[in-house]
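pasting for ref
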Amino acid sequence: METGDGERGLRRADTCAAAGGTEDHARRAEAAEVASPDVARHVSAVFDAGDAERARLLALFAALPVGVVLVDARAADLPIVFANAAFSALTGYPVPAVLGRNCRFLQGPDTDPVAVATLRRALAAGTGCTVTLCNYRRDGTPFWNELTLAPLRDTVGQVVAYVGVQVDATARVEADRQRALQATVLDATAEGIYGIDHAGRCTFINPAAAALLGYPPDVVIGRDMHALVHHHRRDGTPYPPDACPIHQAAAGGQGVRVADEVIWRRDGTAVPVAYAVQPMAGAASAGAVVTLVDVTERARAEQERAALLTRERAARAEAEAAVTQRDHLLSLAAHDLRTPLAALIGEVQLRQRRLRRGRPLSVKEQDAFLATLHDLLQRQVAVVSEVTDAAYLQMGERLALRVELVDLGALAGEVADMLAHAHGAGAAVIDVAAPTGVVIVGDRDRLARVLQNIIGNAVKYSPAGAPVQVSVRPEGDGAVVVVRDVGVGIPAGEIDRVFTPFYRASTARGVAGTGLGLAGARGIVAQHGGTIALESAPGVGTTVTITLPGAEGAARAS
């Protein structure tokens, strides 16, 4: 992507030099550029896929709300072969102006060479990475770009392209800088500082002031500070707000310093203080900043600052964990989408070679070929659906279930037949005891995905020829599905963790998987009002029990 120093900016595209009209017109023009035959030819050079598949990929990338570019890893200087409208909106460059160019044109004098070096190392190693670096828009204005780079490989593992996902992180970086600056200023002083609005309500408070007053900051924010800590004089007589210098300054008065007054702590004790009040700059009645001094409380102020730093570190760690999880999900999606694509490309190429040799396909062969294509596309749709559902469930969102009457026994038989065909004769043997007529209300496609994950796991982790038993029985107005295998099993200490997204048991090493299947299955079953339980032991096997309610229970859950 950004592989070296180079010229700033690009020549403007002739079509954009004469551009005008409304913002709506600009968006339509950008969409037309993304879908243009020229872009399709570029992407075709990287992905040897059929027209429909290529169009699907282009539509997928074009619809993303974040900037996406594809660069050709096989061409010199890694030229861009695709950019979506969000990239154009982010950088100000029209799509035609960037095709065929290296991404380094976004760099400028303040681009961090360390971030660029990180990108270069990732490109040299054929790996992905995420960096945040300063880039420049077409008009020369800088912005912070959070760039996630992921390689795409062909069927032999050769990197053929890189996907670059770009998010405008300017607001976050600037907010982090501003917060860091404010925190540094506030935390660096042993004096208590708080702010109030024109009505005397607290707008911010530093750790030193919070310690001095005896209140946690979140309790103080929004409270009337005079009523909270300045309500009585030293002699115990009431202190009217109109007579208070702090209140007067906040309401538009002049700054003032008071050498000897008291404030009242949360525990009811009076603390002698010296304070200064300074009205905030701007319109009248904008509020004021109050500085308190009590030298006896400096030690406690240090403790409060340490607690604040701990909370900030915890918040930062949580944010970094969220970014890591997002990147993990993006990596898994790229990996799992490649597998059916590679098989699809292989099938198409095989038929192309036969046709070039003058051997047309018979009707039966055409039907078989179309069936294979349909199966591969269905697998890709399943991967996209699983990743999408996983993302929704991770965010705590409810899935939009399409409920209907589902014959669970018939569905289990269909899934078992499909898995038996997919795994072939050298796999475990699926034995289904699932009478028809066990009907529940649910989302048929998602319940099928649950069964595919559970039964598929049983087959994957069982030796060839071993039995995998699947049973379906009615229970009340609902149903119970039990899947038993004699496979590798799961250690007792890991059973609960296998339902955690991206976690894979230690006994699953060497077997392909995303770690999303069981997590997604539990989420789908839960949203149907059901439960899923797992019993397992290494070397013995695994039993998974799925309990689903009848129509009434499913209606309550949804």
